[in-house]
Amino acid sequence: MNPYLVERLRPFGTTIFAEMSALAVETGAINLGQGFPDTDGPEVVKQAAIDAIDAGHNQYPPGIGIPELRRAIRAHQQRFYGLDFDADTEILVTAGATEAIAAALLALCGPGDEVVTFEPYYDSYAACIAMSGATRRVVTLRAPDYSFDPDELRAAVTPQTKLILLNTPHNPTGKVFSRAELTTIAELAQERDLLVVTDEVYEHLVYEGEHVPMATLPGMRERTVTIGSGGKTFSFTGWKVGWVCASPALVTAVKTTKQFLTYVSSGPFQYAIAVGLELPDAYFTGFRAEMLDKRDRLCAGLADAGFDVLRPQGTYFATVDIRSFGETNGLAFCRSLPHRCGVVAVPSVVFYDDVAAGAPLVRFACCKRTEVLDEACTRLKGLAK
Ligand SMILES: Cc1ncc(COP(=O)(O)O)c(C=O)c1O
Predict the structure, then answer these.
(1) Measured by CB atoms within 10 angstroms of the end CB, which terminus of the chain is less buried, N or C?
(2) Residue 59, number of CB atoms within 10 A of its CB
(3) Rounded to an integer, what distance in angstroms lies between the CA atom of residue 48 and that of residue 120?
(4) Can you name the residues that pair with 137 across neighbouring β-strands?
């Protein structure tokens, strides 16, 4: 245990992604652990970043983000969901969704407050809740369909609950929350006067069902903080351009913490993501179709290798249950996998408080070139049963 680290952050050591990516480098294994594409996004978006650098957009951008990007975010929310956010008072550009999550939690909750979230959860949620000093209460999404028990959700909300932290489409499960499920959450939020912070970074990666933004549900526009990011949608995860859309009072609260985290970031990339958000519908449908093909390829390969595949409805990820291999410990399995067959995956247990629920599950990323996915599946097929 690190003696310097403050107590509330002690449970958060090196992330599993760092450990597994290091293992991939060390063993030369194919890395299907971390969720980043192995090809660049659209040429026109890349060129827009180069042009922005050449044009001298290299100093601090405005604290709330450049107007071109805020207008593009506004137009995107209108085009896809009919949501209307004011580009000057209701949109804030952040250093990726990661900063948006941190800034929102630090702004909206603190010691004595509780945050309800679903497990498995994206790993930064638990760390940011801890940094805020609030307490996390989790509701388990249960495999194979990853539904939740509304009574369990209701029971998780106490008089101390400040907000519900939601993620749809959901990492790591690939679940896309249905309109009915979101309505259950929305009605509870209104009944108990809670905010909802919703992480929708995979909004354009829905293969089955539809993406329903929480802010579109009746009564939710004013109590929802919507978080988006250009990283996944445009396959430039290293650029870290994210955003928050919410009412002026909520955006002002989040801006107050955000300004002391990074102040600003990603100057020239903000211009480029603005260009991306304005691409015609054909880009977004083409991107989805390309990723759907990768999902299907990976899921078929994993099934062929003998795994029980929990087919994702969206996102970059597919999950398998290793009990079909006669194994139960996903962490040990992932640590041995690069040595056994030259593939890296992530043990889903790191996303759970309920260790038993997550122990046999392992997550693979499908956002890689098809030849890489095929080679990984061939290697997995050679895994001794
Ligand atoms: C659910 C979820 N939220 C947020 C992020 C981080 O997004 P960004 O790269 O924009 O910070 C990720 C990245 O993997 C994610 O999966």
Answers:
(1) N
(2) 7
(3) 37
(4) 116
Reply yes or no on whether the pLDDT at 16 is more than 90: no
How is residue 10 annotated by DSSP? T
Residue to probe by mutation, ligand 1, list 171, 198, 200, 244, most atoms within 8 Å of CB? 171
Compute the 3-state secondary structure of the chain and give helix, strand, coil in percent, each to the nearest 5.
45, 15, 35
Give the C-alpha separation, 251 to 262, whole Å. 16
For residue 25, give the H/E element and its range: helix 16-27
Instruction: Give the model confidence (pLDDT) of 123-137 as tens digits.
Output: 999 999 999 999 999
Helix/strand/coil (H/E/C) assignment for every residue in 177-194: CCHHHHHHHHHHHHHCCC
CA 91 to chain centre: 19
The dihedrals phi and psi of 229, each to the nearest 5 degrees, come to -160, 145
Spacing, Cα 99 to ligand 1 middle (Å): 9
Entry pTM: 0.97
pLDDT (tens digit, 9 = 90+) per residue, 202-245?
999 999 999 999 999 999 999 999 999 999 999 999 999 999 99
